[in-house]
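ugh ok fine here u go
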Amino acid sequence: MTVEAPEGCLLNPKFPAAVVSRAQTGHYVPILILGALHQVIPDRVAAAAGSPLWALAQSGVRDDGRPYTTVLFFNGGMGATASKDGEHVLSWPSNISSTPVEVAERNSPLFFHYKRMRPGSGGRGRFRGGSARTS
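structure:
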């Protein structure tokens, strides 16, 4: 198999392309590849991740007048395979973990009432995708 990314395309941009969020784009490429492979070898390919990467950027001013900015990461689950359930709360293909509630509350004026697995978010079927976490 040969994969090419011609110069100037989204995956191989030329300066001065705006690519500050290029890591987020990269999370969707494997899903495209898995989708293409599923058409040829469906029993040997995992389903796509439920959410390759959810990122929330928040900024504002604290009560004491100091500005703040924070980025929170939330992850869904990995897709199931033909023989087993997918992994829960996994950012794939990277290793970004979900932002812990304690970190989010320390770095911003957010308050979380709860953080838990989202029931049923892995879908239905003999083998289910991994569950997403919700806050």
